[in-house]
Amino acid sequence: MEQTAADRDRRDRLTGYGLAVLAAACWATGGLAAKWLFSPLDATTSGWPFPPLGIAIDPVMLSATRALLAFGMLFTYMVIARRDALRVKLRELPFLIFFGVVGLALVHFTYFKAISLTSVATAILLEYLAPVLVLLVSVVVLRDRFTWSLPMSVVMSVTGCALVVGAIGGTGLRVSPEGLAWGLGSAVFFAGYTIMGRWAAHRFSSWTLLTYGLGAATLFWFVVLGGPAPVFATLSNPKTLAAVTFIAFTSTVVPFGAFLKALRHIRATEASVTATLEPVLAAVLAWLLFGESLGTAQILGGLLVIGAIMVSQRPGSTVSELPPAV
């Protein structure tokens, strides 16, 4: 039986949403893995179901080492299995470098800077204002058709995140002017990653985009840290190397690759709204693994985020002049 265009479109969108959910799940898992691996072993953490390893590493160094290892994994795979995808034109390199620095390295840098000046909950909420920016750019610049389902899904997802992290119905957030600026910066860069990824999805394979992007991000961290020596010195510890390798794969290679692949099938706004599942999934996993509280407000927030994803899936909610996904 021949498949209709509507059936193909439905399957395409389901694939896109599935990949975006996979990205959110891996980001959540990777964040919790980092917490487990790098938390000190003390009176509190020794009571966890699985006591942490207590590896000491700076958050910025973690970003640099995982970028390097993730690039190494992908580059090795590309050389062995997808060598043709490494071939790009010289004029395309500036975009790929810009994508890696702005869309990958600076997302992590501004996020961790916001955490150092505020709190994890505040940084998460500020970063996940990105769907608001993606919506504005998609409608104004990319000429997506405005429908009420899009802003409704964005408002629901941001409100859900606020409930999950305690900004509403919880202990509130601690925000200094400097922390607010860095947190909003992380939202801008994550929105930029999403929009650039959507634009580039029809010009590069996801593998090409992520490999060159991670290569540029690695060079960025070398510059920030004054060269590669501190990065390699950190990875000389076998336990640290094993831990960062795991995080590089679970919270970098898989989710960033899946998210870029999702952008070939669904709109940037839809993908960014779906990504707000990350703090919801992280809260549930933290409740299961670390015994953290999961109250009524967090459950309601999770339901709001899920509802936002369902609203954003309404067929025909957007029409974009971007080329069709292939």
Brief account:
The protein is mostly helical and 326 residues long. The chain has helices at 5-38, 59-81, 93-117, 120-127, 130-140, 149-165, 177-200, 206-224, 229-235, 238-262, 268-275, 277-290, 296-312.
How does this model look, in words?
The chain has one domain. It is 71% helix and 0% strand. It is mainly alpha-helical and 326 residues long. The longest helix has 34 residues.
Q: How would you sum up the global shape?
A: globular
Low-confidence stretches: 317-326
Q: What letter string, H or E per element, gives the SSE order?
A: HHHHHHHHHHHHH
| Classification by helices and strands | mainly alpha
How many angstroms does the end-to-end distance come to? 22 Å
| Average pLDDT reading | 83
Produce the secondary structure layout.
Elements: H1 5-38, H2 59-81, H3 93-117, H4 120-127, H5 130-140, H6 149-165, H7 177-200, H8 206-224, H9 229-235, H10 238-262, H11 268-275, H12 277-290, H13 296-312
Helix pairs in contact: 1-10, 1-11, 1-12, 2-3, 2-8, 2-10, 3-4, 3-7, 3-8, 4-6, 4-7, 5-7, 5-11, 6-11, 6-12, 6-13, 7-11, 8-10, 11-13, 12-13
